[in-house]
Write a structure and sequence with these properties.
The chain has 154 residues and is of the alpha+beta class. The protein has two domains: 68 residues, GMP Synthetase, Chain A, domain 3 (2-Layer Sandwich), CATH 3.30.300.70; 69 residues, SH3 type barrels (Roll). The protein has three helices and eight strands, in the order αββαβαβββββ. The strands form two sheets. It has a five-stranded antiparallel sheet with strand order 7-6-5-4-8. Strand 2, helix 2 and strand 3 form a beta-alpha-beta unit. The longest helix is centred in the middle third of the chain and has 14 residues. The termini are far apart.
């Protein structure tokens, strides 16, 4: 079976010096290899094709046969690496913590250890009738998070 680290090394070798980054590598039963890459702007099909050719050219099908798929993570997939968080700064995201708490709002910043979501909600006024809009910055660490996804505007 082809080792995951072998694929990671090949991907990183190919992406070195570019703005593209590795999101995930999966090596499944039967040597089915899935590689997910992204870019701060957008990933092109040509980028995926070039990476696929690099990986295929570096592996020997005579030794071990494999199936290879190279793509970008889908827009509805959970973030896996820091550059994905950084890519989506300024857009609406939904983060679910490990304890099940949901935070939805504008991703304000994404640092090395934590990220900030600007959450807007309606609450009852302390005095008087009616509701008021409350805007709060929620700081979360990555190890608190079960999943974070981009919220698509419809």
């Amino acid at each position: 079976m082809i080792k995951k680290q072998t694929i990671i090394n090949l991907v990183e070798e190919h992406l070195k010096g570019t703005d593209k980054f590795l999101v995930d590598v999966k090596v499944l039963a039967g040597n089915k290899i899935e590689v997910y890459v992204d870019c701060p702007t957008h990933i092109l099909i040509a980028d995926c094709v070039a990476l696929s050719r690099h990986i295929e050219g570096s592996l020997d099908r005579e030794k071990e046969d494999f199936e290879l798929q190279v793509s970008s993570p889908g827009a509805t997939e959970s973030f896996k690496v820091l550059p994905q968080y950084q890519k989506y700064v300024g857009t609406k995201v939904c983060a679910v913590t490990k304890d099940g708490t949901k935070h939805e709002g504008l991703l304000v910043s994404a640092g090395e250890n934590e990220f900030v979501i600007e959450e807007t909600r309606r609450e009852k006024k302390a005095l008087g009738k009616g509701n008021q809009t409350v805007v709060e910055n929620i700081t979360l660490t990555y190890n608190q998070i079960k999943e974070t996804k981009s919220v698509l505007p419809f």
